[in-house]
């Protein structure tokens, strides 16, 4: 059982072991639980490393000039693409560093495992960046396809708000100039004539061929005249 002196000594030690008291000390101690930061969210990474926030903002500005997102849905997808690209670049730099440390001591299994994890993290963020970029491109394709549909509807005197998430590109892969019901309703005779001339029915060609063959078989064969035979008497 602890004595009264031991209890007082423990209390005194506890009062002295409260951690950092200043703002700078707390900021330094907050970084102890964070390693490379390749699994961290942007807010956590920027809070621990302000220099990363400056580098990310510079990269995001350059990528924004190339991607030019134009809706909230595109903005969210662009943010995923920019962050994954930033993390993949950081991972490749860290990969080179861990590889150099492993080459100094090739028999060190711990350094090799660290390098291997870094390579996998770099590949993971690159896949995330590629996926986000594909989704952003598809959203922009649908947006421009929706512009064309809006123009056609304005010509028809109709108004329809097309959602940003609507797969307009998939619906316009066919040649709607010749299969659009609005086009067929506007110019029925011209459209039907174009469809007939461009896609004749194969059965009609087959029937016409059979009729020509029957006509050629029904004609009687003509015997050539013999020049040596005498002419018929009158």
Seen as an oligomer or otherwise, the chain set is single chain
The SS-based structural class is mainly alpha
Radius of gyration over C-alpha positions, nearest whole angstrom: 40 Å
| Principal-axis shape | elongated
Count helical runs.
11
* N-to-C order of helices and strands: HHHHHHHHHHH
CA(first)-CA(last) distance: 159 Å
Number of strands: 0
Give helix % range.
Answer: over 70%
Percent strand = under 5%
Low-pLDDT ranges: none
Question: How would you describe this structure to a colleague?
Answer:
This protein has 234 residues and is mostly helical. It has a domain of 158 residues. It is 72% helix and 0% strand. The mean pLDDT is 75.
Topology of helices and strands:
Blueprint: H1 4-16, H2 23-30, H3 42-48, H4 50-67, H5 72-104, H6 109-155, H7 168-171, H8 176-179, H9 181-186, H10 188-198, H11 202-218
Helix pairs in contact: 3-4, 4-5, 5-6
